[in-house]
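Priority: low. Protein: Trifunctional enzyme subunit beta, mitochondrial. Input follows.
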Amino acid sequence: MASMLLSTLRSCPVSPSWAMRIEQHSTKSKKSLARPGMKNIVLVEGVRTPFLLSGTTYADLMPHDLARAALQGLLNKTGLPKDAVDYIIYGTVIQEVKTSNVAREAALGAGFSDKIPAHTVTMACISSNQAMTSGVGLIAAGQCDAIVAGGVEFMSDVPIRHSRKMRKTMLSLNKAKTLGAKLGLIGSIRMAHLAPELPAVAEFSTAETMGHSADRLAAAFGVTRLEQDEFALRSHTLAKKAQDAGLLQDVISFKVPGRDIVSKDNGIRPSSMEQMGKLKAAFIKPHGTVTAANSSFLTDGASAVLIMSEEKALAMGYKPKAYLRDFVYVSQDPKDQLLLGPTYGTPKVLERAGLTMNDIDVFEFHEAFAGQIMANLKAMDSDWFGQTYLGRKSKVGAPPMEKFNLWGGSLSLGHPFGATGCRLVTTVAHRLQKEGGQYGLVAACAAGGQGHAMVIEAYPQ
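Result:
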């Protein structure tokens, strides 16, 4: 596929000034997506801890500490009784072995009733998306009326194992009955056995890192280094503007034990094109275009949302923020199309909702890499790609940039793998309120070639 994309799409270059273009769109539809006989499911509130660069202020904590802080922040912001929730679901990617079901440990730590079941899901970068939609399913099925969903990732302290040979020796040593058997096992240990086994940073099926895939995808779609740096700078600039204006209202203050109160994301760092241009390729060296400046960074953070049936929310006196409407999950080839989830998910979810791209007022796409975002935009704007890979008569159409990630994105705000989905959904709800729009669309790619898209409808003001 890569070679076909390269030859076909390089003939459709994007101007370096693409990020500033303004397009005319038809008036959005005003119909509601409510359906007879189906429950309206609403987002009541969403919060998150500040997203911090790994190895900074959160460095001495554990994942459940951050998840607990997000849950406590949700309780404080909503005044929710601690026994009023039917179920709790959390997403995470790299699990701490001591708290494998981090949803349960965080819920207990936050003071939720011990009668509330909780489970943890993992689906790479869309883990909290899965947590939310699992909750939506429970409500739609009549199993629950109130769900707390969220996600957490803690990259400051990832599990590092002994080598497999050392693990086997240690397990055998634990079972050895006699001193001689134990001494024999100890004597079998070699220096090579002591080499640590680090968490995988590559796709298991392809043995390729996501950054490497992003570099190849950018090359296939003819995305230049300049375009990627421009988009990354846009993300940081818009995030800084939103932070200074107090628009990131989902961020809660968190008193880190033994350290200061943290109240802001610390990865927002607007730079200059000149400074960004000095960085060398991070993955495909020396000629790659993906660098540390145009990639999302390793991040610690947690998020939480309160999802209810509309009936339950109103009965408890809440004013919901938004309706959670249609959603889809997609999956494709994890080698050449690893990061194209938004391109595949967007037309499917719009079709389910009976909407068009012109109906969407707010777009929030996960920014794993600037090259990944721009490759998706080019794929969505390509008739050839739509016809060849999506089975469409014509292109999907790229989101207009005046509606796209206007408060920054994962490149600047940070990307705790398991927590980003809730941030995206909450941001759409807040932007719809702020901008007076009706429909928002969330889309994200994930490891394994998977992706997610969801339509969100503003709650009447």
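The two ends are 47 Å apart (CA to CA). Residues 161-197 form one domain.
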